[in-house]
Predict the structure.
Amino acid sequence: GENVEQHPSTLSVQEGDSAVIKCTYSDSASNYFPWYKQELGKRPQLIIDIRSNVGEKKDQRIAVTLNKTAKHFSLHITETQPEDSAVYFCAAPRGYSTLTFGKGTMLLVSP
Amino acid sequence: NAGVTQTPKFRVLKTGQSMTLLCAQDMNHEYMYWYRQDPGMGLRLIHYSVGEGTTAKGEVPDGYNVSRLKKQNFLLGLESAAPSQTSVYFCASSPRLAGGNKETQYFGPGTRLLVL
């Protein structure tokens, strides 16, 4: 089955800096890679996703890049703000109808 | 449109007791999932369902049972609770896309379970 490794486990940045979280996957047939944000005490919510037919996708301050050859994808947050503080999860398909999640990255943005 | 809802929000059980967690979705999604979330472990899939009347095991199914008698509901049961089942439980649902294409999962608010 799919194995997803996520790094780093914690990331501390100053407000305005950029943050990068990286995930690697094992199944070369995987074709869908979502990122979820989970604020303290809340449910995970999708913030951006990418399919394997594109290498990059942007949505305002958030971008995801995909390197199919190296089997890794990354979340990039620019101009970080305190409200970006949360736990971020990457995921990759496992079988036909499920996802495997990374263990999460706790992002702390200091004012 | 409530999305995905879960009941109860919080529950305390004694070892050996049983309970059922209810998940409901009003988005007409085919797929439904139960996850548990523990510190440092991410989201681990317990059981899932690809349609009414069908269920399948995930990564950590032991000690849990599920049922999907109606398309909009997915029940998670603990027959004999153990302290190791103390966790936050999330339900999720997603639509089925043609050609095996994946779609995002929508999560419920979670149920916090404490087993003493």
Observations:
- The longest strand of chain B covers residues 31-38.
